[in-house]
Specification:
heterodimer; A: 276 residues; alpha/beta; 5-stranded parallel β-sheet; 5 strands; 11% strand; globular; B: alpha/beta; 5-stranded mixed β-sheet; 12 strands
């Protein structure tokens, strides 16, 4: 199968990410609903994956040999749909129906309605176990296909993740990459004030993973990191992507109240201006 | 006395045969190789037995991922833990995601008798029956267990299969063929209907014998599929026999009895009695002693049918 946009340069990915952020702000504004903070923190990660890393083909979204991208933080559906549209999996016009009555673009993604979605997420702590399953399936098949799973950081408070992290380490799943969108905020407060996660890299390492920390908004660094997986043979890879919730829009950045606030008309205009 | 069978033997034998002919089939277990009787499967297909350890949420999620990767996973663990611990994974990763995962709940009901209510699975049918896009199937004997497993492997989509542990007699003909959502009339009769599933089917048949001795002709339905329910068979039974007793190794709240009552109440109201565990945590006891305590015996079912007929008259 074709490796989609695998030649995209860092500058091209940055331009894609800017466009994704702009469209993301527009659809949240139009829907009057969404999780804009967690969308924007992940935009550079998704743009890098879809335009320079993942072996996926929008013309054949069910190709058995595709890489799997599993977005465990299902509430960030805005950035997922916007990226899928930019990559050609769904028409851009469909984004105008984000969370509209009867729309396939539910607030949390549905694989049976949206091409490119691998599993239905929304309740937290579900993506990583499913990703371990897709990685085991690839190993059983002797296939080089890889699984990338994006988790929110607060989500790692769910115990099911640690069952999966333990199993992946035990099974030497070097075809599995977890990316932690480490924006430091969960719905109600900072992760470290709620139920501390640090030292995350040491925790993954203790479970048999190779972990690296990267600036989740530095596309050059993300590209270099994703292209270096597996970091160690016979170990799953963990990328702790340090991000800013709401990145790119000054009044949203690192503000806990913007977990699922919707920008006003004036705020939308300002956001789009800042994202130009 | 008739020969008795542990349905897990038919389960493991059939699964090995299916896996021999279809390399997509894998088993996923939670340190339950022994309790699922999958030791022989593991010896035969060491790479295709995925033991995730004591981690039911992960087990079900991994099953969904394996299905995404083109495998046909039979996810097997003790019913109370598979269903109770991983209920949200069953809902989101399997039923809602519509993945080709076969959930196999072993040793359901009160099979673990003396181990107590933590190990009893008497809520699973109610929990799972409430979830959309998830067939809920309760084989009554080894013939049916094999037939259901073969159907499961050949049928795309999620499902839950309750695999019994306590020995049962064969209640189905050797030529039995499973059809989803279709009840089997094991005994015809016009005076009262007993609708049972799983371990209770043979007891319902014995109860029909006791009733027949007293001149009461009971119809006995084996309701293998709890969801989707055979509504036609229920309405027909209500219309033709005028009263219905349901019997299940499960709480009386929300399982087989609840499913039948929903149809009876809305489509053909007749008097009913719901037999099962009456909304309590069972006291310490062997499974047979618990069956006696809750009237889940041939005599208990027959008595219940007679009381119902008296009340309905």
């Amino acid at each position: 199968m074709n490796q989609l946009h695998v030649q995209a340069t860092a500058e091209e990915v940055r331009e894609r990410a800017r466009a994704i952020r702009r469209r993301n702000v527009e659809i949240v504004r139009a829907a009057g609903l969404g999780h804009i903070g967690g969308d924007l923190s992940a935009a550079d990660i998704l743009a890098t994956l879809y335009f320079a890393v993942l072996n996926v083909d929008p013309a054949h979204p069910d190709d058995p040999e595709r890489d799997r991208y599993i977005q465990s933080k299902g509430h960030a559906s805005g950035v997922l749909y916007t990226t899928l549209a930019a990559a050609g999996f769904i028409p851009d016009s469909l984004l105008d129906r984000y969370m509209a009555d009867g729309s396939p673009l539910n607030g949390h993604p549905d694989r049976n309605k949206v091409p490119g979605v691998e599993t239905n997420t929304g309740p937290l702590g579900h993506g990583l176990p499913v990703a371990v399953g897709t990685a085991i399936a690839a190993k059983l098949d002797g296939s080089p296909r890889r699984t990338f799973v994006l988790c929110g950081d607060g989500e790692l408070q769910e115990g099911s993740n640690w069952e999966a992290i333990m199993a992946a380490g035990h099974r030497d799943l070097d075809n599995l990459v977890v990316i932690v969108d480490r924006n430091g905020l969960q719905q109600g407060a900072r992760t470290e004030a709620t139920n501390a996660l640090d030292p995350l890299d040491a925790k993954f390492a203790a479970f048999g993973w190779a972990a690296r920390t990267v600036d989740g908004h530095d596309v050059d660094a993300l590209l270099a990191t994703f292209r270096a997986v597996p970091f160690e043979p016979r170990r799953p890879s963990c990328v702790i992507a340090n991000t800013i919730k709401g990145q790119g829009v000054s009044f949203i950045e690192d503000r806990v109240e913007w977990h699922h606030k919707v920008p006003s008309e004036a705020q939308t205009a300002q956001a789009l201006e800042e994202l130009t | 006395m008739s020969e008795r069978f542990d349905c897990r033997d038919a389960f493991q034998r059939t699964l090995i045969d299916l896996a021999t002919h279809d390399e997509r089939i894998v088993a996923v277990v939670n340190d339950s190789v022994g309790s699922s009787k999958l030791g022989a499967f593991e010896q035969r297909f060491p790479d295709r037995l995925i033991n995730v350890g004591i981690a039911e949420q992960n087990m079900v999620g991994i099953g969904a991922g394996l299905a995404n990767g083109g495998r046909i996973p039979f996810v097997s663990g003790a019913a109370p833990f598979l269903t109770g611990r991983a209920l949200e994974q069953i809902k989101a990763d399997v039923a809602y995601s519509n993945t080709n995962v076969k959930l196999c709940g072993q040793s359901p009901g009160m099979a673990y008798g003396e181990l107590g209510p933590t190990h009893h699975s008497i809520e699973d049918l109610a929990w799972l029956r409430a979830i959309a896009n998830l067939p809920v199937i309760v084989p009554a004997d080894p013939i049916e267990t094999e037939a259901v497993l073969r159907w499961a492997a050949a049928t795309e989509g999620p499902m839950f299969i309750r695999v019994g542990r306590i020995p049962v007699t064969a209640v189905n003909d050797p030529g039995y063929r499973f059809r989803l959502g279709v009840a089997t009339t094991l005994r015809d009769g016009a005076d009262v209907t007993v609708i049972a599933c799983g371990t209770m089917v043979e007891r319902a048949l014995e109860a029909a014998d006791l009733l027949a001795a007293g001149g009461v002709h009971a119809r006995v339905l084996n309701m293998t599929t709890i969801r989707p329910l055979d509504r036609d068979a229920v309405v027909k039974a209500a219309a033709e026999t005028g009263s219905i007793v349901t019997v299940e190794e499960h709480t009386v709240h929300g399982g087989l009895g609840g499913a039948v009552a929903e149809v009876v109440a809305t489509e053909c109201p007749v008097p009913m009695r719901l037999m099962g565990v009456p909304g309590v945590f069972a006291p310490t006891g062997s499974v047979e002693s618990l069956f006696r305590r809750f009237g889940l015996t041939a005599a208990g079912i027959a008595e219940s049918a007679l009381l119902l007929r008296k009340a309905a008259a």
